[in-house]
Amino acid sequence: MSTAEGARARARTEVTAAIKDEARRQLAAEGASKLSLRAVARELGMVSSALYRYFPSRDDLLTALIIDAYDAIGAAAETAHAAVPEGELMRRWTVACEAVRVWALAHPHEYALIYGSPVPGYAAPATTISSAARVAMVLIGVVRDADRGPGLTGLALPAELRTEAERMAADIAPELPVEAAPAMVAAWAELFGLVGFEVFGQFEQVVLDRERFFRHAVTRLGVSVGLPAA
């Protein structure tokens, strides 16, 4: 790459970052449904036609913000999880969950973008899937290591759910016992439900010591997916 090409690439990266930063400020102030490319361009002192060279539509900008948010929350879980010794299975699970909560509380508007109400008129493309799966992959990895090591415990599956469980298992973790799949899907939903209740104020006057409550709750989720108690 020539010096001129490198300078252009750096300039494009800097402008792209500035556009996304301003878009995040608009998310915080107005919500995702009111995000406007024209308003972003105006705040940055750009003409709309120039901004369209970076993001051809509002949906393209939303998709970039969504991928960034999924990657950030996924990286937080991965980093926390990687700091725990491999054999401490329940601790690996809980610290990953706690990292999700900490990130969400620090970035409530970005959390709302990916786990709040759908944006009217927007459908997330397939390019968001791998980023969206990062937290789940951390948690599935813990369950996989438990199955290969001490073994999963306490998993049960009603007969009427077996067909659905087999379909889930084939999609998300074919190497694990079929019984683990519904438990993991439920734990994934409950994790983000717990975080969402706190981020969106549903625990007001209900839960006061939220950090200890959350740790207790996600430990129970770890037990529900078959992890041995710490």
UniProtKB/TrEMBL annotation:
Q: Which Gene3D superfamilies match?
A: Tetracycline Repressor, domain 2 (1.10.357.10)
Q: Where's the DNA-binding part?
A: 36-55
Q: Where's the HTH tetR-type domain?
A: 13-73
Entry keyword set: DNA-binding, Transcription, Transcription regulation
Which PROSITE patterns does UniProt cross-reference here?
HTH_TETR_2
GO molecular function, a single term:
transcription cis-regulatory region binding
User: What highest taxon heads this organism's lineage?
Assistant: Bacteria
Q: What is this protein called?
A: TetR/AcrR family transcriptional regulator
Q: Which organism is it from?
A: Streptomyces seoulensis
